[in-house]
Amino acid sequence: MTNQHDLTAHIQANVSAALLEDLRPLSRKRHGEKAAEFQPLDITANLIPAEQNGSATIITRQDAVLCGREWFDACFQTLDPDCNIIWFAAEGDAIQARDVLCEIHGNARAMLSAERAALNFLQTLSAAATVTRSYVELAAGTRAKILDTRKTLPGLRIALKYAVKTGGGHNQRIGLFDGILIKENHIMAAGGIHAVLAEARRIAPQGMSIQIEVETLEQLSEALDAGAKLILLDNFDLAAMRAAVQLTAGRAELEASGGVNLSTVRAIAETGVDRISIGALTKDIQAIDLSMRFKTL
Predict the structure, then answer these.
(1) In angstroms, how far is the first alpha carbon of the chain from the final one?
(2) Cα pseudo-dihedral 195, 200, 201, 205, rounded to 10
(3) For the chain, which terminus, N or C, has the lower number of CB atoms within 10 Å?
(4) How many C-beta atoms surround the C-beta of residue 267 within 10 A?
(5) Low-confidence spans in the chain with pLDDT less than 50
(6) Of residues 93, 234, 253, 270, which has the active-site annotation?
């Protein structure tokens, strides 16, 4: 995962893009107009006097794991730097239906203009953290770590991987640039398992992880003979996973992938694999039901 400085930059980029979708349509920009002169445009919010202040509370309608506070805050404070947000739940807390999560005080126009973008982030990231927590709890007591994948919503890779960590999971590689994952086509193009692993070791920067995917126990044996230390078991059934753990005997870390859901994850974890990667943590998520209750002051 990224450091706090990089995370802050990602948050600012995410929030800017989200607000741009709502407030700064390109068709409104006049030729020669400087960016600083191009003001946010919310036609409906202009029904409210510019100097009007307001307050609001955010309520959750369902149980969840809270995640995304920094994205939420940034939406409001980008439009109103004096906006004050008081939180009653911490990042990563288990929240319950009807809980009041926070109070917001600030300029009424800015609050209403930022509302949808802010809730979108909080609902989406809380959803990823919530489903991750469910998987982590089901795997508790085994050696298996719950990992995400690169199956993320476009533009929200870092945010969703942050949510997975908030839910108690672990991050796979961030992208194609920070880890090697050798799949079937790579093996075929490079001339086999031994050849592709040798080439991976030659080109990998120091400290970069090298993982190879196998589809059979025979391929697993070959990968172990070639010195693989991180192996992904692609769509192995439970019996094959148990055999893989026995065959490996601690010589490499084994990761299970494919066919993982809330009904199967416990049995998979009990086979003895070290890691379980799940695309559904960040791809097949349903937004947490939150609402903002607003009033003018």
Answers:
(1) 42
(2) 170
(3) C
(4) 11
(5) 27-29, 35-38
(6) 234
